[in-house]
Amino acid sequence: xxxxxxxxxxxxxxxxxxxxxxxxxxxxxxxxxxxxxxxxxxxxxxxxxxxxxxxxxxxxxxxxxxxxxxxxxxxxxxxxxxxxxxxxxxxxxxxxxxxxxxxxxxxxxxxxxxxxxxxxxxxxxxxxxxxxxxxxxxxxxxxxxxxxxxxxxxxxxxxxxxxxxxxxxxxxxxxxxxxxxxxxxxxxxxxxxxxxxxxxxxxxxxxxxxxxxxxxxxxxxxxxxxxxxxxxxxxxxxxxxxxxxxxxxxxxxxxxxxxxxxxxxxxxxxxxxxxxxxxxxxxxxxxxxxxxxxxxxxxxxxxxxxxxxxxxxxxxxxxxxxxxxxxxxxxxxxxxxxxxxxxxxxxxxxxxxxxxxxxxxxxxxxxxxxxxxxxxxxxxxxxxxxxxxxxxxxxxxxxxxxxxxxxxxxxxxxxxxxxxxxxxxxxxxxxxxxxxxxxxxxxxxxxxxxxxxxxxxxxxxxxxxxxxxxxxxxxxxxxxxxxxxxxxxxxxxxxxxxxxxxxxxxxxxxxxxxxxxxxxxxxxxxxxxxxxxxxxxxxxxxxxxxxxxxxxxxxxxxxxxxxxxxxxxxxxxxxxxxxxxxxxxxxxxxxxxxxxxxxxxxxxxxxxxxxxxxxxxxxxxxxxxxxxxxxxxxxxxxxxxxxxxxxxxxxxxxxxxxxxxxxxxxxxxxxxxxxxxxxxxxxxxxxxxxxxxxxxxxxxxxxxxxxxxxxxxxxxxxxxxxxxxxxxxxxxxxxxxxxxxxxxxxxxxxxxxxxxxxxxxxxxxxxxxxxxxxxxxxxxxxxx
Length: 784
Hints:
single chain; 5-stranded mixed sheet; alpha+beta; Endonuclease III, domain 1; Cathepsin D, subunit A, domain 1; 784 residues
């Protein structure tokens, strides 16, 4: 075989730097290229469609590999897997410093090893070319080897783009077309391959399919003659199919090593169809004697639970004995399990899950007993109604936005001192500016009406500071009156009212109420009848004190200077460097206001973080049923608040409303006769939990009592037939019968029908409310 070994064509790794394959020059140029031109890599090469890459066959040490030509790569690379397959591990050397290059996908590749002067044979028809090439070794190379510009610039091969072949110029002047690399060449050259070699080969050639074929000579099928088939079909009892296993000279057996573990496969459920088919096949094979039941020496003997020592059958009932206690095994019957759950929970005091589970464990057993007990206790209506909640209250704190300037937003409230002064005053009208925290305190009589409140507001605030944009207040009757709403609308003020009985929503005014109370305790006489004479002093003390939210006193922000106190006369007077009305004064005031806003934002963020640690987010949706705290509803006459249920309901959520700073409020469909505002804050509600797992369970609520306290609402009515008069008198007026739903009983099956005479004796206000709704046309009538 001819060989071509021209030093001008073959790149040599020698001291001659012009060869471009010297390892030192190679590393230096690669580092310079990686800094200046990071576009080239084999990333684009391996993603190219099959047939568009130039790959030649290379023989190194009698073993074949594939060499990829990449005109965009600077150096020559060889993969670690190829180094192992070609048995070149002993020639791998460590670089003096790592070489870092950038691939086309912008990833950085670091190379630490190299191979120097590897003799590569490139076969062609009639001979081979021998080149000595140096490579950088990379474990990230997805092919055998890659020949870059260091090789191509010296070897200068010719590429035929149409046929995708590589040609080299021979020393005699002719050209040779190199052999293409094919995956089959490995098999052709090796014949039989060991598993490790085949695995490495498969990893390098994943784009090609491989098939393992067993070939054997097939004979012609032998067909039974028709006359014999007729005889066999006529006498089937004489021609039985063979059964049993064919006798063999050698009988194989599996010997089990003592102490070895039992093999365990993955257990999975079979469908009924699969199980029936498996049983049919097993039965048929056992009858034919081809298989028999397994009797492995390592198998475990199956226990018969009926005869197990833990179980005992007494009078047809199965008992499980644990720790000396016999427990009845309850079958998968919902009625029985619901009955026993009710006896162990309802009849024993409606205690929690642990006590209920203890009662069950002493008497019964079924597989899901503990999980059923927990669900039963969680959905018990009596427990939900009567027990207080120990979890964090619902509703995360979301404060109102900080006003933009003083006098823009106010908080108002009425504080009851519970004592009437000499001048006939009992209430304190509290007005607070939400921005600078400045407050006005106005004494008012207990019988002050809305007209008086409007006049006091104008004299004590509007006259000095103008009209506010918004007013936050609770739902006092004077704030909810039409006269107050008309006055606010006339002056362009927006009213923002909190939900009922939720003081936290108007926290600014409520906080000032506490401050006023403890200041009054310091300065009033024991008789307490002169408290209104101290209001001016109380307001002055509050407005001159530094507020924690703003970092300064309300008077300093309002008056633009700090009012003098008696103690200030002991110190020299500090003259301001800027006079009011100057640009410097305006600039200083604006800067101070900006500092106040920043201080309030910090205080607000700290308050949110502190409060929300002890609260939960509310997730009620429209249509959900909720419990409402009994404290939010009116107290019935003669009924102790302490002995009443903690919650009433459950009632449906109609809407999500409100801008309360500590969470949303909800409109709840409460009965109209309760005469309460139907908007409740999330902290006043509790979720209603129910389940369909115990349909046979009767109502968990106690029997209803006679009296208005137990009637929830009238949901329907009907007319009773009346006998016609015998004479000429006026026909009798038809009597009405009302369908009553009792409080806490949500199942319509528990509703009862009562006549109007019966209900007027127990719940007249419920009947009156229902009849008013009939007159307004809000309720239809059922016609039997």
